[in-house]
Structure formats: structure tokens, C-alpha cells
């Protein structure tokens, strides 16, 4: 299936909600770099409720570790600054969808290494969507394509 990677996530409830999404969809979750919380944080656990046992979680110190662990997978960046829309991507089983930190997004050096796609925001009044919302939008588009929904 798909894999979800979060680059230095900062807000525990977002990561908890994304973990719950992983449990619901069968996606594995990769946490990359310095986390803005402890993995045993109460608000993180509360957001994931009792689904943590159903989530395959991997922690990586940096991008190099993520790339080494997913050597046979495509890593696809999601960025509000990308030119291509996430719906233009031809999703493949095993793809890793990499999302940036809530306040900083993905660093330029990461975006330079892998293809990047954006979720359009036609209202033009916000700079980005909530991280958990963004992950849900992109993951379900990937699942729609992969399953022919």
C-alpha cells in the first residue's frame, strides 16, 4: 500500500490523527528527524485513541535513513509551493508520501531530491492546510487510483 512520512512533525494531535488514518487505510507511518513532542505524549496517544497497535511506525533520524529504508520506493514530497497538483501523480503501491513540518514545511534540499506536488487552495486566503487534513486528501486520492474507486 502507500506509506506516509512526516518530516519533523510538531503538533501531537496531528500525528495522532495521521496514525489513526494509517490504521484505517493500512498505510505505514514514518517519522523523520527531530519530533516536536515525545512519542509517548498523552495528546498524541489520545488523538490515535486505541489504534496504535494497528499502525506500523518507523522512526528515522534524517532523510538519508528514510531513503535507505525505502530504497525501492518512490519518495514523493507534498508542498504548498509545488507547481504540480497531487491529482496529476500516478500513484504506485509502496509510494512514500512525505509531508513537511506544520510551521516550516519541507526544507529546500529535500524538495530538490524528490518530485513534489501540491494540493490546490483556490480560495487564496491561507498559506497551507492542516497537516492531518492534507495527508487525508492525498492518501485517499492515492487509494482511489490504486483500488479503482
Key terms for this structure?
alpha/beta; 7-stranded parallel sheet; single chain; 7 strands; 34% helix; Alpha/beta knot; 149 residues
Q: Can you give me a brief rundown of this structure?
A:
It is built from five helices and seven strands. The protein has a seven-stranded parallel β-sheet with strand order 3-2-1-6-4-7-5. The mean pLDDT is 91.
Question: Could you explain the architecture of this structure?
Answer:
The chain contains 5 helices and 7 strands; from the N terminus they run E-H-E-H-E-H-E-E-E-H-E-H. Helix 1 (12-25) packs parallel to helix 2 and helix 1 (12-25) runs parallel beside helix 5 (131-147). With 149 residues, the chain is an alpha/beta fold. 34% of the residues lie in helices and 18% in strands. Strands 3-2-1-6-4-7-5 form a 7-stranded parallel sheet. The chain has a single domain (3-147), classed as SPOUT methyltransferase, trefoil knot domain (Alpha/beta knot). The radius of gyration is 14 Å and the shape is globular.
Mean pLDDT: 91
What is the percentage of strand-forming residues?
15-25%
Largest sheet: 7 strands, parallel
Determine and state the CATH class. Alpha Beta
> What's the domain count?
1
Shape: globular
Radius of gyration from the alpha-carbon trace, in angstroms: 14 Å
Remind me, CATH topology? Alpha/beta knot
Structural class: alpha/beta
CATH homologous superfamily label = SPOUT methyltransferase, trefoil knot domain
**Element pattern in H and E:** EHEHEHEEEHEH
Distance between the termini: 15 Å
Amino acid at each position: 500500500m502507500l506509506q506516509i512520512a512526516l518530516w519533523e512533525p510538531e503538533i501531537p494531535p496531528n500525528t495522532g490523527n495521521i496514525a489513526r488514518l494509517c490504521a484505517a487505510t493500512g498505510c505505514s507511518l514514518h517519522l523523520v528527524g527531530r519530533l516536536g513532542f515525545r512519542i509517548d505524549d498523552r495528546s498524541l496517544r489520545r488523538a490515535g485513541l486505541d489504534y496504535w497497535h494497528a499502525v506500523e511506525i518507523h522512526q528515522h533520524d534524517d532523510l538519508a535513513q528514510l531513503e535507505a529504508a525505502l530504497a525501492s520506493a518512490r519518495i514523493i514530497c507534498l508542498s504548498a509551493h509545488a507547481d504540480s497538483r497531487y491529482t496529476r501523480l500516478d500513484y504506485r503501491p509502496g509510494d512514500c508520501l512525505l509531508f513537511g513540518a506544520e510551521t516550516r514545511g519541507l526544507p529546500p534540499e529535500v524538495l530538490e531530491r524528490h518530485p513534489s506536488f501540491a494540493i490546490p487552495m483556490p480560495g487564496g486566503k491561507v498559506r497551507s492546510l492542516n497537516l492531518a487534513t492534507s495527508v487525508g486528501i492525498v492518501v485517499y486520492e492515492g487509494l482511489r487510483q490504486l483500488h479503482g474507486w
